[in-house]
Design brief:
Blueprint (H helix, E strand, L loop, with lengths): L30 E8 L2 E7 L7 E3 L4 E2 L4 E2 L1 H4 E3 L4 E6 L2 E6 L8 E6 L13 E3 L5 E4 L6 E4 L4 E2 L6 E7 L4 E3 L2 E3 L1 E4 L5 E4 L5 E2 L4 E4 L5 H22 L9 E6 L8 E7 L2 E7 L8 H16 L15 H19 L6 H13 L9 H4 L2 H21 L5 H12 L11 H12 L2 H12 L5 H11 L13
Parallel strand pairs: 1-14, 20-21, 21-23
Antiparallel strand pairs: 1-2, 2-9, 3-8, 3-12, 4-5, 6-9, 7-8, 10-11, 11-18, 12-13, 14-17, 15-16, 19-20, 22-23
Helix pairs in contact: 2-3, 3-4, 4-7, 5-7, 7-8, 7-9, 7-11, 8-9, 9-10, 10-11
Length: about 475
């Protein structure tokens, strides 16, 4: 997931009565959570299958602006004798007398539509009253009072969402209620007006600045049509969804951000810096949507094995985004941005193998060096008669997608195998592998040499002979 300036949450998906769970299936009866919106406001009633010392919320990240637990700003326990306590960095429901927690607990809440640190927004609020709730924040695990920690496993959590005002949306369709065990999606309340094309469904806040809304309505359909055409249909069925909210013209702020979930892309826009049309804002919006949209294929249709391989997905999504924008807007030139990627990669690669970037928290290396290696792959594809990086990635996706007989994972060996298939150059693949796993004292010299083998060069490679 990528962030631009301010962070963002994630939004909607729908279907009924239940979708696949992000948790392991347990033989124990599930925890049931009934989330209701009615004339009295919002409530969540937890039905626990057994007595426990407490129930903890695994997702208890702090609110970014307030720097405190967000539930204490939003939730009020309505059940007598029960309180919500924050223990270290975990929110926990506990009995006030220190005994077992009742098997039914109700909390009332005001949806918290603000940014969290390293997690999805609990709610996304639209100016027309539409609101989306993130399912994962209702998931719980047994709390062990003696050790002051969560149990290692517990029952699955089944969530039921209802709106007394009418149907709600789950996976893009209206239902009277939605039941799910999926803790990585959003459920939408209200009466939004979705925009639907052959390749996506989108809800764009009606108060989004007119110029930006117009550009999104033009850019989004083209983006997903091109991705589907060049990379094949995304796995998972249905159309991807985009949910874009507008938080208003906050003074002295320019914020474009969002997140990607299975089949769902959210965008959160805020600040006076977006009110008037500008090239910076336009290109920021385009790049964010194009990068995150690429993850529906490179990240979801196929994934990666470990964090050591994150460069395949993040650098790949970067280069796909650049090439897509160039296709849609002939006046766009990614050259300066790609040159910056090159310099960032060089700075983060001296004696540092790319496979260790995530462990070192050199996350920018995954994006920058992944993009540079993508340019090598692109050159190989072009030597083999391809047009651009899309052809390299399309072949990788087609060979490894689970719904076509693959394992659903793109490994470094898979990536290198495709490089050899395109270039016929085993030595090139060995050089890339050494860069990934061993590092180099001279990243510029080594990367320039690799680019030269596919008849490509960065401006910094002038001294390298072809």
């Amino acid at each position: 997931m990528t962030r631009l300036l301010v962070v963002v949450g994630a939004l909607i998906a729908l279907l009924f009565p239940a979708v696949s769970s992000a948790q392991e299936v347990s033989d124990e009866a599930p925890v049931r959570v009934e989330v209701l919106h009615d004339a009295d406001g919002w409530s969540a009633t937890f039905h626990f299958p057994r007595d426990a010392q407490g129930w903890a919320f695994p997702r208890s990240n702090r609110a970014r602006r307030q720097d405190t637990g967000w539930r204490e700003l939003s939730w009020t326990v309505a059940t007598d004798g029960v309180s919500l306590q924050r223990i270290d960095e975990t929110d926990v429901l506990l009995a006030d007398d220190g005994g077992a927690l009742p098997q039914e607990v109700t909390v009332r809440f005001v949806p918290f539509a603000d940014d969290l640190m390293a997690d999805y927004d609990p709610a996304l609020q639209f100016t027309d009253g539409t609101l989306a709730l993130f399912t994962g924040h209702f998931s719980v695990m047994p709390w062990l009072r003696d050790t002051q920690e969560m149990a290692e496993d517990g029952p699955v959590v089944e969530m039921i969402f209802r709106d007394a005002d009418g149907p709600l949306l789950y996976q893009g369709l209206p239902y009277d209620s939605a039941t799910t065990r999926d803790d990585s999606t959003y459920v939408v309340f209200g009466d939004p007006q979705p925009i639907s094309t052959d390749h996506l469904t989108a809800i764009i806040d009606p108060q989004t600045p007119a110029w930006l809304r117009r550009e999104m309505l033009d850019f989004l359909p083209q983006t997903f049509a091109i991705y589907a055409d060049r990379l094949g249909e995304r796995a998972g069925g249905g159309k991807p969804m985009v949910l874009s909210s507008w938080a208003g013209p906050t003074p002295e702020l320019y914020s474009q951000g969002g997140s990607v979930l299975p089949g769902l892309l959210t965008v959160r826009l805020e600040g006076e810096g977006l009110v008037n049309e500008s090239t910076q804002a336009l290109q920021g919006m385009r790049w964010f949507i194009a990068h995150e949209g690429a993850h529906f294929w490179l990240g979801q249709t196929v994934g990666y094995e470990t964090d050591a391989d994150a460069w395949i997905m993040e650098g790949g999504a970067d280069l796909l985004a650049f090439r897509l924008i160039e296709r849609i807007d002939p006046d766009y030139d990614a050259g300066t941005t790609l040159a910056n990627k090159w310099q960032t990669c060089l700075a983060l690669s001296v004696d540092k193998p790319l496979a260790g970037a995530s462990e070192r928290r050199d996350y920018d290396a995954n994006y920058a060096c992944g993009t540079v290696l993508g340019m090598i792959a692109e050159g190989a594809a072009q030597k083999n008669g391809g047009r651009d990086f899309f052809d390299f990635i399309a072949a990788l996706v087609a060979a490894n997608r689970e719904d076509a007989g693959g394992d659903g994972v793109v490994s470094v060996d898979d990536w290198l195998g495709q490089l050899v298939a395109e270039s016929g150059d085993e030595e090139l693949a060995a050089q890339v592998k050494a860069f990934v796993y061993q590092g180099t004292e001279d990243p510029q010299g080594d990367l320039c040499a690799m680019l030269a083998r596919v008849d490509r060069a960065d401006p910094g490679c002038a001294a390298v002979a072809h």
